[in-house]
Amino acid sequence: MTRLPNFVYIGPDKAGSSWLHEVLLTHPQVYLTPAKDLYFFDRYYDRGTAWYAEQFRDATDAQLVVGEVCQDYLFHPGAPARMAETLGAPKLMVSLRDPVERAWSSWLYARKHGMWPDDFGAALRSVDELLEHGRYASGLDRFGRHFPRELLHLAVFDDLEADPQGFLDATTDFLGIDRLPLSAEERQAKLPAARAFLGAARERRAPLRRLGPRARRRPPRRRRPRSGVVHRMLYQRIDKSQVRPDQASVDYIREQLADEVTRIERDYGVPVRERWGWS
Question: Helix, strand, coil shares of the chain as percentages rounded to 5?
Answer without folding.
Answer: 50, 10, 40
